[in-house]
Amino acid sequence: MIKTGEQFPVFWSSVGILVATIVIGYFITGRPISLEYPELRGLNFRGGISLLPELLALWFALTIYTSTYIGEIVRSGIQSVAHGQTEACRALGLNEKQRMNLVILPQAMRVMIPPMTSQYLNLTKNSSLATAIGYPDLVSVFAGTTLNQTGQAIEIITMTMLVYLTISLLVSAFMNWFNKRVALVER
Question: 77 exposed, middle or buried (CB, 10 Å; 0-12, 13-18, 19+)?
């Protein structure tokens, strides 16, 4: 049985990792981290942060599109756990949070990981559509700017394909490692 007090060390270790990451980033960059409000100076804004409308459109579109599929994968994974498992949890007196964390999600993850891998690879490939809305991504830099500068189409397209292949293989390798980690150990 998990007691409420046992969850705090996990929370504080997460906070510690976040703070350590910020401190390391501070020392690596060698400049102070500060927030600035944009100010109108002359004919342009200075300070603050600027977001391109193309980036916001790409982020919004990919988030909505991918999250619908991932939500459906999670829903179907949770529903794939046999109803007898939840009844056994109720018989043991587990509350809803314990039921989900200790019984349902570990079993559902085994069903969710393969389609989730496909969806992450799909997201990687769909990010190349940023060229269609004018956002300078990998495809537009390689197949646009570099191709215009060098004129060597076959080499540039091969490099673009190799970069996407490398990204896809890294995502696939990580998800396969994670799948093996949560898989049932058979005798």
Answer: buried
Closest Cα to residue 139, out of 118, 112, 167, 119? 167
Phi, psi of 44 (to 5 degrees): -140, 160
Residue-wise pLDDT tens digits, 123-159: 988 888 887 777 777 777 777 778 778 888 888 888 8
Helix (H) or strand (E) holding 40: strand 39-41
Note the pLDDT tens digit of each residue in 63-79: 999 999 999 999 999 99
Q: Where are the domains of the chain?
A: 65-115, 130-181
3-state secondary structure at position 79: helix
The whole-angstrom separation of Cα 139 and Cα 130 is 8
| Backbone torsion region of residue 30, taken as left when φ is above 0, otherwise alpha when ψ lies between -120 and 50, otherwise beta | left
* pLDDT number for residue 166: 92
Q: Find, among 81, 111, 77, 124, the residue nearest to 99 by Cα.
A: 81
Axis-axis angle for helices 153-182, 105-126 (nearest 10): 180
